[in-house]
Amino acid sequence: INSYINITSGKNIKIISNKDVTIYRDSSFTGSFFTVNSGATLTLGGSDYTITLDGRDSSLNEVSASYPFIVVKGDFTFEKKCIMQYNTNNSTSSNNIGGGIVVNSGKLTINEGIIQYCQATKGGGINVTADAEINVNGGKIVNNAASGNGGGIAIKYATLILDCGSEISGNKSTLSSISSSAGGGGIYANGNANIT
Q1: How far apart are CA 43 and CA 171, in angstroms?
Q2: Which of 91, 92, 105 minimizes the C-alpha distance to 157?
């Protein structure tokens, strides 16, 4: 992919495939794959075939990005048999920090989807802020990394609901020193975050 797809208010988009497919990042493209704006809905997957978003180029070379795969301000559902992997987001902007997904508001639902091997300065897998809600129903957030807080998930002023069948493992924060305001290999929570 070499340009982002902007889903505007009032749009309800569902993307499925009739075969296994991998979407790679163009080596010159540093933006998000999708932006889901307030009042818009995006569902990725839901068929018997796997959709993989890969942050590397088609030759499997790492690409230094400035955004996660998905920027969520509306409603995004990530279904089973869908994978996000190998996105390296080097941005330090509060609006687009997150290796796989940033949820600035709205709602994210992960139904057995997988986010793995993504990196960011905060929220290696997912960064959640601004009164957003995230529901993880049997999903896997594994082997992601942050140079700052929240190797798997960083959450602030938002709600995280984890189903008992979900997995958050193998994630790491690479901060050299851990204090009360920094760290969180699996989950970093701050600013009146609610976790259930």
Answers
A1: 25
A2: 105
Residue 93 CA to chain centroid, in angstroms?
16
The residues near 143 (Cβ < 8 Å, ≥ 6 apart) are 116, 117, 169, 170, 171
pLDDT, one tens digit per residue, over 129-183 is 888 999 999 999 999 999 988 999 999 888 898 888 899 999 999 864 444 455 7
Whether the CB-CB separation of 112 and 85 falls below 8 Å is answered with: no
Model confidence at 100, pLDDT cuts 50, 70, 90, reads very high
Q: Is 99 exposed, middle or buried (0-12, 13-18, 19+ CB in 10 A)?
A: buried
101-120 pLDDT, tens per residue?
999 989 999 999 999 999 99
How many alpha carbons lie under 13 Å from residue 186 in its C-beta half-sphere? Answer: 7
The Cα–Cα gap between 181 and 45 comes to 37
- Please name the amino acid found at residue 112: E
Q: What span, in angstroms and rounded, lies between the C-alpha atoms of 38 and 9?
A: 6
Q: Are 115 and 87 in contact (CB under 8 A)?
A: no
pTM: 0.92
